[in-house]
Design goal:
By secondary structure, the chain is mainly alpha-helical. The protein is built from ten helices and no strands. The radius of gyration is 17 Å and the shape is globular.
Length: about 200
């Protein structure tokens, strides 16, 4: 319930401040590649280009607004999963909500969630893999599928492989689960910033 509220609050913020036109970076390239069902510079971002193409059929707003819904939804989804992941590793609801809120309004996440870029989608996939690694309700095949989906967006998702492996092996026993939990927390501190622009420039 709280994760849904985090998503709604984040998406409201991002839609209210969504960039209405082509901005800096790869915005124009991603838009044109999506409209033409093409790929961009390596690694190509085929999944995002396909999503841009599908966004054309949304009956609301300009083409840039429709395409901008992708990073906005991805950023809001990532913030909701920050709350979920924090709860799964033992944080209280208030601390998890604070972590999600701070993530949502952090300048880089906010910026990347309001313009047609690839970083918010990358962060969403990273959080999906991390959350699935902890959730006992997510089956093994679903975890592998989420990881494979992340690879369709960017090859850097391969850095999430250790998290996936720890998640798949966490059922071995309480000691192994504690070790896996600690390792995943450490891995998240390394992996999540890889979805943010400063490490690419």
């Amino acid at each position: 319930m709280i994760s849904a509220l985090v998503f709604l609050a984040s998406i409201s913020l991002y839609l209210h401040t969504l960039c209405p036109t082509v901005s800096t970076g790869d915005t124009a390239e991603l838009m044109l590649a999506g409209l033409g069902l093409d790929v961009t510079h390596p690694p190509g971002y085929p999944l995002q280009c396909l999503l841009v193409r599908l966004s054309v059929f949304i009956p609301a707003g300009s083409l840039m607004f429709r395409a901008g819904l992708i990073p906005a939804c991805a950023g809001a989804g990532a913030c909701a999963l920050v709350f979920r992941a924090a709860r799964l590793i033992g944080a209280s609801p208030s601390c998890a909500a604070l972590a999600a809120g701070l993530t949502a309004v952090s300048p880089v996440v906010w910026q990347q969630s309001t313009q047609l870029e690839k970083y918010s989608l990358q962060m969403l996939f990273a959080m999906m893999v991390l959350s699935a690694a902890f959730s006992p309700k997510v089956r093994v095949l679903a975890r592998i599928f989420i990881f494979a989906l992340a690879l369709t967006h960017h090859s850097l998702a391969v850095l999430l492989a250790p998290v996936l492996a720890l998640g798949l092996g966490k059922a071995a026993g309480p000691g192994t689960r504690a070790l896996a939990r600690t390792a995943v927390i450490a891995a998240s501190l390394v992996v999540l910033p890889l979805g943010l622009k400063p490490l690419y420039t």
